[in-house]
Structure formats: structure tokens, C-alpha cells
Request: fold
Amino acid sequence: MGVALTRLAQWTAAGRGTRTLETTPLNEAILKEIIMFVESFIYKYPQEAHYVFVDPLQWKTNLNPSAFESGYSVSETTVKSEEVDKNGKPLLFLSVPQIKVRSFGQLARLLLIAKNTKLQEAQACVEANRNPIAKILGLDYDTLTEDSSKVNILDKIIKEDDPEIDMKMKIAMLLKQLDLHLLNHSLKHISLEIRLNPGTVKNDIELLKRFSGKGEHTVLEYIDYTSDYEFSNGCRAPPWRQVHGEICYVLVKPHDVETLCVTCSSEGVFLNGGKTDDEGEINYERKGAVYKDLVTFLKEKSAKFSENMSKQEFAFSEEQQKEKDQPNEEPKKEEAITFHKAVTGSDRSTQEKNQINFGKTRMTKRLEPSLNWKATVDFKERRSLVRDSQEEKHIGRLEKARPSVSPGRAQIVRKSAEKIEEIISESSSESEEDEEPPDHRQEANADLPSEYWQIQKLVKYLKGGNQTATVIALCSMKDFNLAHETCQLAIRDVGGLEVLINLLDTDEVKCKIGSLKILKEISHNPQIRRNIVDLGGLPIMVKILDSPYKTLKCLAAETIANVAKFRRARRAVRSHGGITKLVALLDCGQNSTEPAQSSLYETRDMEVARCGALALWSCSKSYANKEAIRKAGGIPLLAQLLKTSHENVLIPVVGTLQECASEESYRASIKAERIIENLVKNLNSENEQLQEHCAMAIYQCAEDEETRDLVRLHGGLKPLASLLNNTDNKERLAAVTGAIWKCSISKENVTKFREYKAIETLVGLLTDQPEEVLVNVVGALGECCQEYENRVIVRKCGGIQPLVNLLVGINQALLVNVTKAVGACALEPESMTIIDRLDGVRLLWSLLKNPHPDVKASAAWALCPCIQNAKDAGEMVRSFVGGLELVVNLLKSDNKEVLASVCAAITNIAKDQENLAVITDHGVVPLLSKLANTNSDKLRRHLAEAISHCCMWGRNRVAFGEHNAVAPLVRYLKSNDTNVHRATAQALYQLSEDADNCITMHENGAVKLLLDMVGSPDQELQEAAAGCISNIRRLALATEKARYT
Amino acid sequence: MNRKKLQKLTETLTKNCKHFDKFEVKCLINLFYTLVGDVTERQGVVIGLDRNAFRNILHVTFGMTDDMIMDRVFRGFDKDNDGCVNVSEWIYGLSLFLRGTLEEKMKYCFEVFDLNGDGFISKEEMFHMLKNSLLKQPSEEDPDEGIKDLVEITLKKMVNMGNLEFYIEIFCTNLSTFILQSRMEFETQVFKDPNEFNDM
Reply:
């Protein structure tokens, strides 16, 4: 019987034509609550029960006068209560069927009389008395809930101190409470039925916000969304979470509990994994029970909230209800109501406080769009963190990816994590989605910059203006500092991106140019890039590439270059035929169709080519795009452009080539198109960036021997060597050293480098350089040290020490190269002494435990010359505790390279008798025998050598025979490799000392094969083959002799 | 009009006009007379396109819609202010439109905007020109507020940029259909002979 009632009834029975209540469970429940309230009224508030209503409650009753008993004077058609008011009027008057009731006491008694028909009576009463409060207390009190006069009334009460008004006030409060109770009750009902939706969640949060803040009286310290961006469907959760029904995430700080990160989903409200400070991301996983709404959730979590809430409840739900009732009501008015309501029954100070709140909330209302900018997290920090975690992810993946890449090519020097991502995306399949989370809408600054409003206004003009207005707005927008993130995101957040992209679809050249100019700038922002792709900007831009206007083409290409920094975008460019069009831009000769007059926007053909190359550069980071560029005939055009002298054109062109040269097919084309010549020429350029990209391209291409020769023939080695002297630009240094490394694979090039004193410089670069430089430097030294003179130079320059020091690193690429270089140095006894003194052999040996097979193999190879050239090699090897066992166990590896290298190491180890005995004990014979059935010539050769050396101990010869190693060895003789022949013949010679082996050999047709080997020009092979035949023959003779004697 | 006279007219006009060659001038003169229609030439009566006819051409041929601008363009053509565009004004005006240099266009643009011809573009004049450029939104209290704002932006920009380029931006946009889209069509239409067309 309060305000609530009328309203509650209204919403549940919304749309009804007649003024009756619908019989819904909810209405019934409410009526029951009212009945309970009235019935208990006499007991709880006996005084108030006698209060006489201002106007009687009047309705049609079904009650028969005869039902009334004592306390009533009953006639046939009328009933009067004996209880009368001051003026002697009865408090209950029934004249069939009308009934008038004027006090709570009478109401309660009436209900008691009604018994089974209580509900009908209550319903009839409620229907007939649309505004019970006005009737009970007088109009003043009814309106006081609605407008500001309440304060005045309060004042009046205080002054007059009238007992009746006091009572009225008390009743008013009681009714209020009932009201509230009903509201809550019905809410419970409703929320059971209705799943949460974005609207209700938003209302809840908005309301809670108003009652949040510092101080004791607020319900919460603060409550805010984690994301300020609201999608058009009212959700704030990212789209991929929305599919789970999640609406938004809220950070709540109650007074007595830690900050809670809460997920509001359509199922209900629950605690999620939280937003950790160091991650910045929300852990979406559910961490607790699901509550039906936010208030319930918070009541459960925070005692303080629930306590303060019960104080505020009244205002809160009142307002909640208001919002539901009058969604279109002016927000201002609503605020006013809150304010005045809050004043009720509280002192002046709260009033003031609320006044402030009132102002604040009004502000929030007015600043609605600004919510996007209110910070919850420091945006910058968040970005960088996101990036960090991404990098970690990439690196993790890179490590996984490595084993599949060959050791030489695997380590391409990269500038940044972004580039690492690119490598990965090259090697991984295209269908995979990008790792980078697509959207972070919230920004750092709590206050909106003025630019935001200006940009918002401009976007409005863009939307609603004709061409003139659009151009003016575009020009003005361009004057903002578009490189600044604030402006970039402001444009997006006010919906500017959509408009800008839309403009690209118009016929208006001016607007397109303006729009592209802005897009070009803001697309430097990674988020904007994604948004542009999401909004379908790329196909339109690709279409513009066909435009007859060069300026448009240029701008479109430049924008594409910026946008195509991530895989999905690159794929989009390709799938819309963009690559072909971009390649066409490179062909600047054909594009002279533009009329001469548009002088203002005249662009040079070179510029078109530059933009095209720029876009291709971005696109060429995907494998499929490289293919597409090649198929579109891009290589000859790039080669053509390389001949220009415009640096700004050359950089993207060389960049594209460098990117593409990772593909075999490209390297062939590059050779065919005589691109190397121009690359070499540009090495001499003044521009560091250009030099860097040229060196990088050479690095990529010099995998190929012919290319290496070409670099030398075009005089490219000298500029490379001289660029080594400038060590300030590390990226360039890495590229240059990389090029030198690859070039020095050819012997002639090494000689040249020695002439240019490059080796001394390289040794100087062994210290204080970043790893990507070191990898290349050491790689180059490793190649150079294959020659004796260079080894001497390295030793004399003091290169051994830094090399050995690098053996303790962890970078696998570096270790592979370092071990190789150290191994090469160890070929020279004097260097070996130094290595030994520096304990380099031990370090190498410990690298055999490295998890990476390339490192293991490389270390094992390097050990071979060390063992060969060290003094007291046997003693040294034995001094490594567990070293021999380690080596023997490596024979269980399944990597051919590791096996071959370990066999080679065993060959050298076995030269020492004692060590041979040890490895025999460790079971080297069966392990070697198991490997015998291999097809790899490299492994065969080293295996045969190892076997031949291992035969020298005890009954190893017999053992090899027992482990079936002999027959496969005989088959090695059919190989084409003379090295294999030699090693095999030697092994067979050793094995043929045992009679059983001779028989096996003979059975496998070794004699005929060996007879051929005797005719070989290789002396060792001759000797070994002949020795083996002689052993077999001797056995045959002995057998015959035995038979006949 | 007899051939001889036409010949003579062509020659004088070609001499005075730096952007068109003789052939093009001839084409334009022909077009002019086709547009004017069969009006017998009498002494004292000026042959030419009156305001309405000219506006019609602008609308039909160049797709211009803004009354204000069309009117101003007419004024720009009608150098002697006699209310109609005669042959020489026609040729001169088109040479500016189709082939004019940046400076010429700028000057013309300024004239278009300088409604009262006092040599200054005032806020009011700018307001007039931009009056129809924004979609009226019923929700807004002051429908002119946006336009006033645009005027502010424009004038601020002009001051910043030394006026030069921005005029052209606006000018070209206002007449953009004229300048950019229809121009090529128009030219190919008018100057049909491809051999004579090469040097442009």
C-alpha cells in the first residue's frame, strides 16, 4: 500500500486495459506482503493503528454485513464500526457493496473478518485506491516523495512539533519501509525470472557508483568498469567473451575487503581470476559462486557494504525502481529526487554531502561519452606489459620452432620482438589467428583532453556535412597531432574511423585524400590498424590503388604499408588482389595517365613507386605474399627500381628484397636479375638504413655460392669490411657482420677479407657487442679460421680468449658458431695450447650436455681437433669425470649430425688405449654396431672410422662381428663417396683380423668390391683394401691347408 | 554567323586566352552557340547565356547543386556584370576552370567567396557559403552552431596557412564536380578530335 505497490502493479500488469490487477504470481505475492503488513500493524504499532486517515480507503467489497460481529453495529445493508474518530464518524463504514475504512486498525480487523477472501479484498482495495498514501496521509505526503517540498515539511515538523504530524511522519516512514520491502521482494521475484542483461547491470553499477566514494557512509570505496568502451549492444566485455554471455567486468573496492574483480554475465555475477597488477589482463576464469546480481554478490562479500547498504537501501531501491519506471525521465530530475530522498531522516551534513554527490552524479551524466576516457589501468604500462608477455610467448615459440630450421639459416638477426613475430608468422600456418589481443579500449588519463571534444565535433561535421564541410573538417582534423595516441584513440572512440573509411568509398577525391591522410597517420597505432581491418578498410584501400590519381594511390599504398603490419591484414591485402596492384605501382612508367592540371596534387611517379614498395615491404613479411609478389612479376620491377638514386625509394625496395630473399626461389631470381650488383652499389650509400638493408639482403642471398662470388666480383667485400669500423649503429653492424659471415663461406672472399684487415676488426668485435652481432662475428671467424693464416691472425690478435669466454653463453646460435670457431682454431697446435690453458676443452665438453642437438654436434666436432692437437690428450680426456660415458651415451641420439660428430670424437678418443678401454666398458661397441644400418654417407664415414679405431682393444673385433656390424659395413663400399670407401676399407681391414668376420665379409661379396678399391688412386684406401683382402685370403689358405692335412 | 566572322572571332579569342589552343577555342565557341541556340544576331543585342541558362548548364553538365555557389560562379563568369555570359567571357571563364593555374583559381575562388566584393572575406560571407553544408539535426538547439563553428575553423586555418592552399581546398571542393570529375568528360566531349588533343 505504498508508492511501490502502485508501481509494482503497474509494471507487472503493464499494458492492461482496465484498471484491474492481473493475477500474476508476483502481484499475488505483493498483496500477501501487504496483508501481512496490515495484519501485524496493530500489534507492532498500536498507537499508529488508531491514526485516522485523511480520506477513507474506499472500495467495493464482497463481504456480507453479516460477517461482521462484535465491535460493529450491523444492519441489513450497512455496517458501522463502533470505533469512531474525533468527530464521531465511524472508522469503518460498509454500505453494500461500498466499504470505507479510515484506520489501520480497522483495516486489520477487516482482513481478519474476510478470512479466505482476504486476497480479493486487498486486491479490490488496491485497485480502487490508486494512491493510498495520499488518502492516508494527505496530499502533502504523497507529493513529498516526488518533489523538493519535503525539506520544507521536515522543517515544519521540527518547528511545530505537532504530535499528529509526528505520527503522520512515522506512518509515512513505515509505509516507506513497506514500500521498500515490497520492492525488494518483487525484485527477488523478478530476478529469479529474468537473466541479467546489459541494461540492468549498467543501472546497478551506475547506482552503486553514486553511493560510492571515500568516507564511512558510502557503500563502497569505488566501483568501476575495467573497460570504458561500450559496444553497441551495451556490453563491455570483448566480443570473444560476449559469446560466453559475459556483459562486463567491474572492479569493486568495498571498505573492508580487497579490490574485487567481478564478471557480470547474463547468468549472474561472480568473482573472476582478477586483474593482476603485473599482467594487466583479466583472468576470465570463474573463481567463486554465481550470484544473481551485483548487490547480492557484494552483500555476501563485504559486511560493511551490506551494513551501509541497509542504511541506503531505501534510496537505492527507490531509485532503482524510478529508473525502471521512467526510463525517459530527465536525468537531472532524477538526480534531484535522489538528492532529496537522501535527505530524509538524515542530518544537514549528509545533505551537504549529498549535494556534492548530486553535483558529481550530474556531471557523470553530462559527461556520458567521457566514460571512455576514465582510467582504470595505466594504459601505457598495460601495453608494454602486453607486449612483454607477447614477446615471451614468441620467444617460447621460437625455441620450439628452432629444431626444424637448419643451423646456418636459423639465426637471422632481428631488430625487435616484432620482427621475431614476423619470423614465426612466416613459418606458421596462415590460418592461425593473431596472438595480439585485438583491443584495449581504456586509456590512461582520468581527464579528457580538450582535443577529444574538438575531434568529436569534427567527426560530427564529417558525418553530417556536405563535401565542403567534410573537407574543412578533415583539414582541421589533420592539424591535430595525429602521431599522439590521445588523438588517434579519440578519433576512434568517437566513431571517426567508420566515417573516414566510409569516405574512402565515395566519389569525392578530395575527401578520399583527406581521409587517407588522416588514416595514414593514425594507422601507426597498432590498435587503430586492427580497427581499420575490422571495419573492412583494406579492401577499399586496395580498390583505390586502381584510381587514376597518383596522390590517392600513394596515400592508399602508404596506409596499407602501415596497416599491413600484422598477419591478418597482410592476408586481407592479398586476398583482395592488393599485391598485384601494389606491384603495378612499382612500374612507374605506365602511370602517366593522370591529367596534367591537378598541379596541386601532382605527385611524381617515383613517389608512387616508393609508396608501392613501402606497402610491399610490409606485406612481404608473410610467406604467401612473397609468392604473390613474385608471381605478379615484382622482382624485375624491384630490380629496375634499384637502379634509381632516390634513397627514400631504395630503402623500401631493398627492404622488400631483403624480406623476400629468405625464399630460395627469390634468391635465384635475384641472381638472375643482377640485383646483387646494385645492392653492392648501395652499400656505398651515405644512408645508414639503406646500408643496413643492403647488407641484410646480401646476408640472406649469400647462402648461395654464386651470389658470394658475385658480391666479390662487384667489389662488395671492401665496403662491407669498411662498414665494420663503425660500430655505433648496432642494427647495421649486425647486418654487415651477417653479410661478412655468409660471404666468408667462400675461400676467395676470405682471402679478400684478410687483405682488407677485416679479420682483425672482427676479433675486436668479440667483446661488448649485442648477441645478434656476436653470432655473426663468431660465425665469420669460424669460416675464416678454416685457413691457417687466419688462425694465426686470430691468435695473434688475442681472439682465442674472448672466443673461449663465449663458450659459457646460452644463446644457441651463438654457441653453435663459437664451438665451430674454437674447433677451427684448435687445428693449430699453438692456439690449442691457449685453449687448453683457458680450459676450453672442458667447456666444449660440457656443451655436449646442451639440450640443443646443433650445439651438441658442433661441440663434438670441435672436440676432435682439440683431442688431436692437445698434449697429453688421453690424460686430459680422462680428467673429465663422466666425460667418456657422456660421449658414448650420445650415440643413442637420433640426430644424424650429432651421431656423426660423436663418432668422429670417439675416433679421436679411441686413439688412446686407456680411454678406448673405458669407452668399451661403457658399451661403445654395441652402440656403434646399432648405427651401422645408416644411409647417410657422412655418418657412414665417421662411423667406419670409429669402428676401425675401436677394434684396437681386446676382443672388440669379435664383438663387432657378434653385433652384426660387418655386413652393413661391406655395403658401404657401394657408396659413391671415396671418404666412405677409405674409412670402410680401414675398418674392414681391422675387422678382418677375426676369422668369423672374414667369413661374413666373403659371404657379403666384399672381396670383389675390395678388389676394385685396390685400384683406387688413394693410397690409404689401396693399402687398407689390400690388407683386408690379404687377411681374407690368408684365412682361405689356412682353411684349405687344414682341410688337406 | 558566317564562317569568316567565326574565324576572326576564334583568332582574337585564342590570342587572349593562354590556356586553350585554337582548335579548342573553336570547339568551345561552337558549344557556346549551340547552347545559346538560334538567336539572330542584331546590332546592339548581346548574345549570351543568361543567369538561368548558365545555371542550368552548371547543374546539368557539372552536376552542381548549391544555388549560392552556382550564382557566384555565374558572377565570376560574367565579368562585365551585364547579366549574361558572352562568348569571350565563356572562353575566359572556362579556361580558368579547366586549365587555370593555382593562382588564377585562387583569385577566382576569392571572388566567389567575397560576396560584397570589398576585397575581404568576412565571417558572414563565409557563413553564407557554408550555410547548407551541414545536415540539420533536429535535436540541436541551434542549427547554425555547427556552421558557425566551421566558419571559425576555416578562418583560423586561413590565417594559419596564409590563406593560400586552403582556399583552393574549399574552392575545389565546392566546384569539385566541376573541376575534377566532369572535367575530363567535358574535355573529351568538347574537344573530340584526338589528334589535336595530344598537347594537353
